[in-house]
RNA sequence: GGCGCCAUACCCAAGUGGUUAAGGGAGAGGUUUGCAAAACCUCUAUGCGGCGGUUCGAAUCCGCCUGGCGCCUCCA
């Protein structure tokens, strides 16, 4: 039996218990990218958040169907293509490929269906047809408009009243709030035949048509960025609920908060204040980005800064450190007996490890509280480190940390964080940071060898001088029993 | 002008009626170390933007004010 959960729905503006359309099943539609440029870290937040939502639902026993679309024909695509002298559909194809790489690089699992507008034209035309037939849309000069006044419930999601909207528009629309379902063909634009002549879909109709086809009317969760609430999602509701179906279009609406840059403004393509995923991923492990997103609640605004990802990487390293410590412990026996013989620190690790899954799930089942879930993980990490610092217990404590290791697996499964081996993580960090910081590992190794020689002959001044040089380059040395290791400093001293 | 959201320590951030206000980072001190790093321990908000109110009791509910953000045009 899937476990119940609560979530905040924009529609009701409160947290409510989830009731599925079909018992045991969750259908979710997330608005994807308009593919006219590379995705930036603001987009990535939405897709990581919904990836984690879907992973958690599946881990909770829900049979989950996840649909995320590509908008591959649109004004912005056409504008960009015309600027670059490229065919719009070719350009869109290129950025779909780019997006797929970014999603894979981020560790997001692919949705079950990734429909495209250009592959959904018949459904779109059919839906527009039913809207025209029902008196909710009208044709004018080869374009078709949705008639907002024909849908009295319009504004229910966003709280907007049609008469209070700002509008400078007039054109051929009957009402300023009316929006395009079908745009008549213009020279140089992609077009498809339709009962209203050649043209292409308007922006909003695609999601209605694709959700309808792949999930059916009245599906469970509709997700997207907070900036899509109006008009995009409002218009989706209007189209879908006027096209001959009964009941609401989607049962719950989830909206993720936006990334903000210094000064509090949101990150946006049009504002030019963005960092792309493909700029960042070569420099930092994907898991650092995931942790950055998951450390705050998905609905809150999330401040972006140059130190955000290095700091998240530091947090990640802390989790891996604890996991590595836990994995290094040895010993056998019955966990309770071993813990009892080892003392309070061992009992704490055992208790926290055993309690983790329940606490983690409780946090996630309460509107996907990833921040609280992570706090539980850090509490466990500290307890493990405290235990492992005692060399005497380290040889016996393995049974005590088994539940904690299971906790790390749950974290990896649900968050896609701490999913590598600690060794692979360190290697990954070293490779990406070395490249980003312009440090040659061979040079570091040579320096380290020279220092080892100096230390062997107790030439401390020389050894310290070498370490200072490495430190200045951002390389931190860790002397251990088995020799010296090095890592790269994650956050620059301020 | 309309609609909506937010305000918790130096920074990020959970908590939305009831024991000592989670967690992470930064900072200070200590343990450890040849010296460091990592790790561990201790400390860092008698207070949760301000002012009123409801209540036995409020960061948590209500009102007003101040500040900020999002949307109303493309936007994750």
Give structural notes:
This protein folds into three domains: 6-279, Rossmann fold; 282-423, Isoleucyl-tRNA Synthetase, Domain 1; 439-488. Helices cover 48% and strands 15% of the residues. It has helices at 41-59, 75-84, 88-106, 121-133, 205-214, 229-241, 277-280, 286-294, 308-328, 335-342, 344-365, 370-388, 391-394, 398-415, 422-437, 441-456, 460-473; strands at residues 6-9, 14-17, 25-34, 63-71, 137-140, 143-146, 179-184, 199-201, 219-225, 250-256, 259-260, 302-303, 475-480, 483-488. The longest helix has 22 residues, at 344-365. The chain binds one RNA strand of 76 nucleotides through strand 3, helix 1, strand 9, helix 6 and strand 11.
Under the CATH scheme, the architecture of the largest domain is 3-Layer(aba) Sandwich
Question: In angstroms, what is the radius of gyration?
Answer: 27 Å
User: What is the overall shape?
Assistant: globular
Question: What are the low-pLDDT stretches, counting only 5+ consecutive residues below 50?
Answer: none
Strand content: 5-15%
The biggest sheet amounts to: 4 strands, parallel
User: What value does the average pLDDT take?
Assistant: 93
What is the helix content? 40-55%
Please identify the structural class as seen in this structure: alpha/beta
Counting H and I runs of at least 4 residues, what is the number of helices? 17
Name of the CATH class of the largest domain: Alpha Beta
Strand order of the largest sheet: 4-3-9-10
User: How many discrete structural domains?
Assistant: 3
What distance separates the N and C termini?
51 Å
Determine the CATH topology of the largest domain: Rossmann fold
Write down the oligomeric state. single chain
**Total beta strands:** 14
């Amino acid at each position: 039996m899937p476990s119940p959960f609560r979530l905040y729905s924009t529609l009701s503006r409160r947290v409510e218990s989830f009731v599925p359309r079909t018992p045991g099943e969750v259908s979710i539609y997330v608005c994807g990218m308009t593919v006219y440029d590379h995705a930036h870290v603001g987009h990535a937040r939405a897709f990581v958040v919904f990836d984690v939502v879907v992973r958690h639902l599946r881990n909770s026993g829900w049979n989950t169907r996840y649909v995320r679309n590509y908008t591959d024909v649109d004004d912005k695509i056409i504008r960009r293509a015309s600027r670059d002298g490229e065919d719009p559909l070719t350009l869109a194809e290129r950025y779909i490929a780019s997006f797929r790489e970014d999603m894979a690089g981020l560790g997001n699992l692919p949705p079950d269906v990734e429909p495209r507008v250009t592959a959904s034209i018949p459904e779109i035309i059919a839906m527009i047809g039913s809207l025209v037939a029902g008196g909710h849309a009208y044709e004018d000069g080869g374009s078709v408009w949705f008639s907002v006044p024909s849908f009295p419930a319009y504004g229910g999601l966003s709280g907007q009243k049609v008469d209070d909207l700002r509008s400078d528009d007039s054109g051929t629309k009957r009402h300023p709030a009316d929006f395009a379902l079908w745009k008549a063909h213009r020279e140089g634009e992609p077009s498809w035949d339709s009962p209203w002549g050649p043209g292409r879909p308007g922006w909003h109709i695609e999601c209605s048509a694709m959700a309808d086809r792949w999930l059916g009317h009245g599906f469970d969760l509709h997700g997207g960025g907070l900036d899509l609430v109006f008009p995009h999602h409002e218009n989706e509701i209007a189209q879908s609920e006027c096209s001959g179906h009964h009941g609401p279009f989607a049962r719950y609406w989830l909206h993720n908060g936006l990334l903000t840059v210094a000064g509090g403004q949101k990150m946006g393509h049009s504002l030019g204040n963005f960092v792309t995923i493909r700029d960042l991923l070569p420099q930092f492990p994907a898991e650092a980005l995931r942790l950055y997103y998951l450390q705050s609640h998905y609905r809150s605004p999330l401040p972006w800064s140059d130190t955000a990802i290095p700091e998240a990487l530091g947090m990640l390293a802390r989790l891996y450190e604890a996991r590595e410590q836990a994995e290094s412990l040895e010993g056998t026996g019955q966990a309770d007996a071993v813990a009892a013989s080892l003392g309070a620190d061992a009992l704490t690790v055992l208790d926290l490890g055993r309690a983790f899954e329940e606490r983690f799930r409780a946090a996630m089942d309460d509107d996907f509280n990833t921040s609280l879930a992570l706090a539980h993980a850090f509490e466990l990490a500290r307890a493990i480190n405290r235990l492992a610092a005692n060399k005497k217990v380290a040889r016996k404590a393995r049974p005590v940390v088994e539940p904690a290791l299971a906790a790390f697996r749950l974290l990896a499964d649900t968050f896609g964080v701490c999913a590598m081996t600690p060794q692979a993580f360190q290697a990954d960090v070293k490779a990406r940071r070395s490249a980003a910081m312009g440090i040659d590992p061979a040079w570091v190794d040579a320096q380290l060898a020279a220092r080892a020689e100096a230390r062997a002959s107790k030439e401390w001044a020389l050894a310290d001088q070498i370490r200072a040089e490495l430190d200045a380059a951002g390389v931190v040395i860790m002397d251990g029993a088995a020799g010296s290791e090095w890592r790269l400093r994650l956050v620059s001293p301020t």
